[in-house]
Specification:
It comes from Flavobacterium shii. By secondary structure, this protein is of the alpha+beta class. The protein has 12 helices and 10 strands. Strands 1-2 form a two-stranded antiparallel ribbon. A two-stranded antiparallel sheet has the order 3-4. It has a two-stranded antiparallel ribbon with strand order 5-6.
Length: 226
């Protein structure tokens, strides 16, 4: 176990591979060419780094036509990478907050397949206050009121529970230092908000745009002022 941990830590610790892993937190698959641009390296060098990450089962690859697309091999890897960002000194983060305007990524972003940033944390806090979800010994559970709320919102909780992954869990937000919702339920909520045009993805970024409709609905449903 110790040897495997050292191997994984060494793999992720390389600056180029760290850039690859950070980019893949977008939740979308990328080609080697796209990842080479993100990591500011050559196609030959990116191929070597991707090979090492594939060998360690940190990434998976899917071929479509002439292109190969890379993504995390499972969602738990995304949570681990996002969690590593919490090792950044809180003092450093708070100093930047006091001197810089909140960046789009810190304001509202995807954390792989769910909502994070200031808006993600505010959404989670509102759900806790409304008893849609409850905090039980530092873990999240859905309430009976929550099952009805999600049903009214157009999400079948029973169907979501059938997915082969964690249903609901807290995820520490690296920019806010507070928990936001993660798991298949949070992923379904983000998908619904995107489908209903409350939110829109941005190109080549994890930042999420909140539409005019989204501003109204977030305030109506969760008392969130954007």
């Amino acid at each position: 176990m110790e040897e495997q941990f050292i191997k994984i830590a060494t793999l992720i610790g390389d600056p180029t591979r760290a850039s690859i892993m950070w980019a893949l937190l977008d939740g979308r698959a990328f080609t080697a060419t796209e990842l080479a641009i993100v990591a500011n390296t050559s196609p030959q060098n990116i191929s070597m780094h991707l090979g090492k990450l594939l060998d360690a089962s940190l990434l998976s690859v899917e071929k479509q036509g002439r292109h190969k697309y890379y993504r995390f091999s499972n969602k738990e890897i995304a949570y681990a990478i996002e969690g590593m960002a919490n090792l950044i000194s809180p003092t450093t983060v708070s100093k930047k907050k006091s001197t810089e305007k909140l960046s789009p990524v810190k304001h509202c972003r995807t954390c792989y397949d769910h909502l994070a940033g200031k808006i993600g944390v505010a959404l989670t806090n509102s759900m806790l206050e409304q008893n849609i979800i409850v905090d039980v010994d530092n873990d999240f559970e859905i309430s009976q009121e929550g099952v009805k709320w999600f049903s009214d919102f157009g999400i079948d909780v029973d169907e979501v529970k059938k997915k082969r992954r964690l249903f609901l869990k807290p995820c520490l937000d690296w920019s806010e230092r507070k928990n936001h919702m993660a798991g298949s339920l949070a992923a379904s909520l983000l998908d619904k908000m995107l489908a209903d045009d409350w939110l829109r993805r941005t190109t080549n970024s994890r930042a999420i745009i909140i539409t005019g409709k989204g501003e109204k609905e977030l305030h109506k449903q969760f008392k969130i002022v954007v």
